[in-house]
Design brief:
The complex is a heterodimer of chains A (34) and B (169). With 34 residues, chain A is mainly alpha-helical. The two termini of chain B are 17 Å apart. Chain B has 169 residues and is mainly α. The longest helix of chain B has 38 residues. Chain B has 6 helices and no strands. Chain B is elongated, with a radius of gyration of 18 Å. In chain B, helix 1 packs antiparallel against helix 2. Classes of the chains: A mainly alpha (34), B mainly alpha (169).
């Protein structure tokens, strides 16, 4: 499998996906009970 | 723990100015310099990339690594007494804490991976051709990793310390 970081587009898409994952993690696991 | 508004404003100002320099140079490396050097290497009979490597890259790297450090220090100072809560991802500081963790990983990449390997690539320290090939790959991937991490880092950084807009706290 090609490393997505080898292309700019793959890097940007990876960054957006990671943003979504971290946001879901923040909202559902860290601040869910507040 | 609260901090005087004027003191916090100065830390925030320094944090943003240094951060613009750091991330601006990171994007310059990834969007301009790396593709330019690849194009220069493939341009038979062209001027080549030696001028970039000799005159541009060392200056860009100087401002890059020191602005990274200043950004982190000013950010840590801005967190002040909330530094531990942020890094422990306590709910009220969790969003800025994620941003702070991402920024810290990026700072490590700059000083622990990119700069030591760039010194080999640019001939500032001795290295065999094989070591230079490996150094080029490590520095490239660390730089691309930082570009990727900058996207969520900026998302969590720019939404404010209490993050009312983001998560309704």
């Amino acid at each position: 499998m090609k490393n997505p970081l080898d292309s700019i587009l793959g890097t940007i898409i990876s960054g957006i996906v990671l943003t979504i994952i971290l946001y879901v993690f923040l909202k559902n696991f860290i601040v869910a009970g507040v | 723990m609260t901090m005087d508004f004027e003191i916090a404003a100065i830390f925030r100002w320094v944090h943003v100015v240094a951060g613009v320099a750091w991330i601006g140079l990171l994007y310059y490396f990834n969007l301009v310099q790396v593709p330019a050097l690849a194009a220069a290497a493939g341009d038979q009979g062209g001027p080549g990339g030696a001028g970039i490597t000799k005159y541009v890259a060392p200056r860009a790297l100087l401002w890059f690594r020191w602005s990274a450090l200043v950004t982190w220090l000013a950010g840590a100072a801005l967190l002040g007494g909330s530094f531990t809560e942020a890094f422990a991802l306590q709910p009220a500081y969790a969003a800025i804490g994620i941003g702070a963790w991402l920024g810290t990983i990026m700072l490590f990449n700059v000083w622990g991976l990119i700069w030591p390997n760039q010194k080999k690539i640019l001939g500032m320290v001795s290295a065999t051709d094989e070591e230079k090939v490996r150094a080029r790959r490590v520095a490239f991937l660390a730089s691309r990793t930082n570009t990727m991490l900058s996207i969520p880092m900026l998302f969590f950084m720019v939404n404010g310390l209490t993050h009312k807009a983001l998560i309704g706290l």
